[in-house]
Amino acid sequence: MRLSKSLNRSLWVFHFNSGSCNGCDIEIVATLMPRHDPERFGIKLVGSPRHADVLLVTGPVVHAMKERLIRVYEQMADPKVVICVGTCGQSGGVFYDSYNLDGPVGEVIPVDVFVPGCAPRPEAIINGVVKAIAKLERLQEGKND
Q: Does the first or last residue of the chain, that is N or C, have fewer Cβ atoms within 10 Å of its Cβ?
């Protein structure tokens, strides 16, 4: 895998847990371990959304996290891509009718790539990141035209 010239640096990802059960978070950590090691391709987790190109969101959006998720999304510079990891983030999953749920991630912020599964395997998460890279490259090429 090689990044195109339009994306001329490493891809930086910010992880945000909007209320997940931690299953998707464990799979994200498994993705970062030496077996898969996406950092060798330049994909790196960062600690601030202001430095990130991609927002990786896990879990359904609970009431306490809705405003924080919107604030984190707005802090990211354009162009940006949002990946929703897991079934709960897509539809609410087993928590869909919970009193404390403000909805799936797609109802709070725009989502570009969905990674289905409960919890998705590291290979699926990496596939989602590859789709996000393609989307980010299209956005940057459109911006350069």
A: C
